[in-house]
Amino acid sequence: MRVLLVSDTHVARRAKAVPEQVLVEAAIADVVIHAGDWVDVDVLDLFEASSRRVVGVYGNNDGADLRARLPEVARVELGGVRFAVVHETGPAEGRERRCAARYPDADVLVFGHSHIPWDTVADSGLRLLNPGSPTDRRRQPHHTYMTLTAEAGRIGDVVLHHLDRRAAPVAAPASRSYGGKGIRMRFPP
């Protein structure tokens, strides 16, 4: 099962549209997980129209319309892997310990808010993933998102993708094929 992880799209505050590369990934993914700060309900509608399945939460910049449609915390099992999704996890220091205590029934926690890509494992075995932001890199060198596979109770092929800044954003995916390059992240066994 191919999963796209995205967060902090911030359309139309930080970007005019979701980048085409992200929409192409959404179209070929089995599931899109969005960790909040959509900002515009049209972005949720776009992902739902462009994807087979969307699992999402609201973030601190999401208004009443998004909060009415999305939970603060989402839980889903994909390929035998138990995912929890939340926007904010607090400061980086102590994050693994706090999140392991808060989400003891999850194998993977997907979060956003910082716009900083993150991939660590808590002592409990909980994997923490933040895909960064495809539209607002803040102090990071690249706009980013992640993909992974989930099957037989394990995740694999976790890749942090850097977006090509020269690519123009579009309103819908142009094709279902993707030839982009990702950077494979290191992760513990």
From TrEMBL:
Protein origin, superkingdom: Bacteria
Stored InterPro entries: Calcineurin-like_PHP_lpxH, Metallo-depent_PP-like, Phosphodiesterase_MJ0936/Vps29
UniProt KW keywords: Metal-binding
Any one GO molecular function term: metal ion binding
Calcineurin-like phosphoesterase domain segment(s): 1-151
Cofactor(s) for this UniProt protein: a divalent metal cation
Enzyme class: hydrolase
Pfam annotation, one family: Metallophos_2
SUPFAM superfamilies given in the database record: Metallo-dependent phosphatases
PANTHER family assigned to the protein according to its UniProt record, in alphabetical order: VACUOLAR SORTING PROTEIN VPS29 (PTHR11124)
Similarity comment: family membership: Belongs to the metallophosphoesterase superfamily. YfcE family.
Protein name as annotated: Phosphoesterase
Naturally occurring in which organism (per UniProt): Embleya hyalina
